[in-house]
């Protein structure tokens, strides 16, 4: 996973999902571990509304077609992202 932030300028972080856990009755915590150029542990606490919004984004046309295409297309070389 590649992560960018306006606070980091043009710097790009490389990381992976670490775990998903419950935090009480109201939140699920998504943990991401960055590995390059720094080792950070980033956590996002999401409530039910946040999770529903994420699911809507996952099942929209462009994202859904990207996931389906990935099942049948071979993985190509990495490219520089411009977002």
List keywords for this structure.
83 residues, alpha+beta, four-stranded antiparallel sheet, 2 helices, 4 strands, 37% strand, globular
Protein model, in words:
With 83 residues, the protein is an alpha+beta fold. The protein contains 2 helices and 4 strands; from the N terminus they run ββββαα. It has helices at residues 48-58, 61-72; strands at residues 2-4, 12-23, 27-36, 41-46. The chain has a 4-stranded antiparallel beta sheet. A hairpin with a 3-residue loop joins β2 (12-23) and β3. The longest helix has 12 residues, at 61-72. The model has no long low-confidence stretch (mean pLDDT 88).
For the biggest β-sheet, the strand order reads 1-2-3-4
SS-based class: alpha+beta
Q: Give the low-confidence spans.
A: none
Order of helices and strands: EEEEHH
Strand content: 35-45%
């Amino acid at each position: 996973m590649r992560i960018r932030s306006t606070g980091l300028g043009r710097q790009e972080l490389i990381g992976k999902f670490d775990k998903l856990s419950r935090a009480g009755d109201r939140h699920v915590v998504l943990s991401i571990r960055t590995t390059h150029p720094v080792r950070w542990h980033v956590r996002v606490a999401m409530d039910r509304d946040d999770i529903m919004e994420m699911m809507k984004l996952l099942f929209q046309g462009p994202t859904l077609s990207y996931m389906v295409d990935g099942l049948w297309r071979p993985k190509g070389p990495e490219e520089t992202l411009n977002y």
